[in-house]
Design goal:
168 residues, elongated, 2 domains, four-stranded antiparallel β-sheet, Alpha-Beta Plaits, alpha+beta, BOFC_N_sf, Bypass-of-forespore protein C, BOFC_N, four-stranded mixed β-sheet, Ubiquitin-like (UB roll), 10 strands, 4 helices, BofC_C
Length: 168
């Protein structure tokens, strides 16, 4: 009966518990050249904004590569490119820096990139019953309420949700 030991420099044939033949064996190790791929990292934020980061990654070990992106969902892959996606439990950096709640002329609560007067709508929510708003609330929305943080985002939505128009 013959057995072989992986990564051993010696192969032994055993017959009834005694070594009959001892012969040198060359260990075969397959060396793979490093591979460079384009990695696309797509982040999806609570406000619906999607940001993409593109990096060139040189893969020396597939195991290390997959471990590095263990927190990401694989979306697509081919020889030259790998696409990962991750949901981020926060609002986008764009909203934190330059997002403002405001109201359109039709009474829709929106988030704008910049002040509402610039009319660059990023996201629309619901119609507000303007008659129920206090005058200072309407003025705040016309001027623009900075989003700043996730907490502020949720707080403003919750506050104005009670003024939402219910169509019948």
């Amino acid at each position: 009966m013959a057995t072989s030991l992986d990564n051993s420099l010696m192969r032994e044939s055993i017959n009834k518990g005694q070594i009959v033949i001892a012969a040198p064996v060359t260990a075969t190790v397959q060396v793979v050249d490093p591979k460079t791929v384009r990695v696309i990292l797509a982040r999806i934020y609570l406000d619906g904004e999607i940001s993409e980061e593109i990096v060139e990654e040189t893969i020396l070990s597939m195991e290390d590569f997959w471990a590095e992106y263990a927190e990401w969902d694989l979306i697509d892959q081919d020889e030259a490119q790998v696409v990962f996606q991750q949901r981020v439990d926060d609002i986008s950096p764009l909203l934190k820096i330059n997002g403002y709640f405001g109201i359109s002329q039709e009474g829709t609560l929106n988030i704008y990139e910049g002040k509402p007067s610039e009319e660059k709508v990023i996201q629309s929510f619901f119609q507000i019953n303007m008659k129920k708003l206090k005058s200072h609330q309407q003025q705040e929305l016309e001027k623009g309420i900075p989003v700043i943080s996730r907490d502020r985002y949720e707080e403003v939505l919750k506050m104005y949700k009670k003024y939402a128009r219910h169509e019948m």
